[in-house]
Amino acid sequence: MRAQTTEYARPEALPYKNPALCVEERVNDLLSRMTTEEKIGQLLCPLGWEMYEKQGGDVWPSAAFKRMIAEKKVGMLWAVFRADPWTKKTLSNGLNPELAAKAANTLQRYAIENSRLGIPLFLAEEAPHGHMAIGTTVFPSGIGQASTWNPALLERMGAAISKEIRLQGGHISYGPVIDISRDPRWSRVEESFGEDPVLSARLAAAISKGNGGGQLKKEYSTITTLKHFIAYGIPEGGHNGNSAIVGKRELHEVFLPPFKSAIDAGALSVMTAYNSIDGVPCTSNKELLTGILHREWNFKGFTVSDLISIDGLMENHSVAATLTDAAALAMNAGVEVDLGANAFAQLKEAVENRQVTIATLDTAVYRVLKLKFEMGLFDNPYVDPQRARRNVRSPEHIALARSIAQESIVLLKNKDDILPLAKNLKVAVIGPNADNRYNMLGDYTAPQDEGNIKTVLDGIRSKLKSSQIEYVKGCSIRDTLNTTIEEAVEAVKRSDVAIVVVGGSSARDFKTDYLETGAAVASSQTLSDMESGEGFDRATLHLLGQQLELLKKVKNTGKPVIVIHIQGRPLNMNWADEHADALLTAWYPGQEGGNAIADVLFGDYNPAGRLPVSVPRHEGQLPVYYNKKSPRGHDYIEMSATPLYPFGYGLSYTRFEYATIKAVQKGKDRFEISFRLKNEGQRSGDEVVQLYVRDEVASVVQPVKQLKDFKRIHLLPGEEKMVTFLLTANDLSIIDNHFDSVVEPGMFTVMVGSSSADLKLTTQIEVK
């Protein structure tokens, strides 16, 4: 149990300190006692890693934190435990889990004991694929999580991440990132769940449930912060933060549903996006933040700006003349917390100028305080550092990271069933991502202790004798000068098969410059491996540096070539598709990625990952997502209009047969779709069955096909199973000309298969 405090439980305490009263009574009592400055302080969320100092095993509040409490009366901090090159926190000067818990306690204690009303802090932490802190578990990045097509597994991941944050004294988890991604040039594709709203919605809801489902009294619940509201993943030109060109109907059909699904599952915080839509910045869009979130959806949590995005109303979008104007614009639109704490520090002036009413300010403060009371922070604000030391990055969480990595690997090509490899072969392990620990992890990752991260080479070493393995790097991701390609070729000649690991990197380093927002600055003067991750947008998708030359020269040896892409976005795989004997993508597979890849290579795990995003043949095809509106696209002069690999695609070491589809009406606008699935191969394996629907005639243009449901099903060799889906009014509805959600009468084509382009069975249903 976390350490208890008795101060707030005294019967003679003020009403807001009395745990016997209901939350609403306590919030209203506290709010009635607060000054304007104290109220504003609850809405400020400054950078947290500057708020502590440490020496050895001791941690204490910094002078900067003491000033924050005294002058700004802050009620929230962001990324206290964060460590990375931007924060300049390392393994030596950052916080391990035990020290993080001590830091949380000392900051809480100081804030409570050195403020008039003793209001505890909220500590918000980045958590898109694990808590971004030293000593925590690193899971696959978002695009890899989505490749599992396994909501139940991601619910377990959400619970693990939430537990690690709470053990260390944090309360709010930033993630999942549920931006629909339609342009792989965009630098943050790796964080997203890909191009489809139904898949993204299911996975986001699962993680929200895992985080506690909004039941904040649970011991390890965190407040899920959904990112980024909204249409942030389709920036013009692929430039991070650029405006999004999207119509109102498509916004409601595609981009809003994942957020609604996650909120229904318990998410209690939503982060605004840097971009604008139709001339209105998302951080000052009242229709979105107040109209949709709070009024239409009855959202019970609070909104938070992305880092200094309120400042951006003045500095980037130029819709506010002063920071005070920007603060007023954001608050009146429905932003409740200022991440960065610059703009809302001007709110007192905005209130005095009558740009913001006290009622509007009180509403925002009420929403924040309510969640603090619901989480029990007024009664139990401290944690046990020893529990954090023992239980963060536990063996159970490491095993879970391996399972997610296994399920995320997508087998794209397997010529003549070359995979899985026999364990008596001699292998050459080649490439820039074969043995680079940080390139396995993706953006938003903390420094790692030696041995925490398993690379592909590590994984292969766990399967074979050292005498069977020869490793040569060959080249880097971007550097064209320092290569060992000829040495790599010689190693391949001495081996039976080449395993070449290429791709990209989001690994930050201390040579890279960073914006105030934390986004990296791409520079020709700093030649790191980094070619993806926030701020690293691409004009092309080809392999950088000498990677393609390395692949060609390895192929010229005549030895079989297995190509593995470790990457944050779907890079150009045309050469590997044509020339490699086998091709896989593992995205950024996390700390256990090397073990998981080796499990797949040598047949200890049968791959079943499916693409959550289409892989283009060429940048000129973009956007190339599967569920475009009718009519179907036609081919270009130079090439097909279809992607190289379609949404939902992925191979297995076994074969599945689909048969006997049947549709039965089960009520008004409800149809049961069933079919038989059989494993016809010699290996146990998973099949990700996917159900798509096309509305044949509608009053507004509909997609050529749209995923409506999916299941990941495990079958033994020869085993068969009846698979059943239920289509409901929600699956068949459209947003009509009057902007109402309706189910129109007519025919619908129902398609079932193993990808958006491999539909095995088709039937029709009719709504009368």
Helix content: 25-40%
Mean pLDDT across residues: 95
What would CATH call the architecture of the largest domain?
Alpha-Beta Barrel
Radius of gyration: 26 Å
> What's the structural domain tally?
3
- CATH superfamily assignment of the largest domain? Glycoside hydrolase, family 3, N-terminal domain
Overview of this protein structure:
The protein has 768 residues and is of the alpha/beta class. It folds into three domains: 384 residues, Glycoside hydrolase, family 3, N-terminal domain (TIM Barrel, Alpha-Beta Barrel), CATH 3.20.20; 205 residues, Glycoside hydrolase family 3 C-terminal domain (Rossmann fold); 112 residues, Immunoglobulins (Immunoglobulin-like, Sandwich), CATH 2.60.40.10. It contains 22 helices and 27 strands. The strands form eight sheets. The protein has a six-stranded parallel beta sheet. Strands 13-18-17-16-14-15 form a six-stranded mixed beta sheet. Strand 2 and strand 3 form a beta hairpin. Helix 1 packs across helix 14 and helix 4 runs antiparallel to helix 15. The chain starts with 22 loop residues before the first helix and ends with a strand. The N terminus is likely disordered.
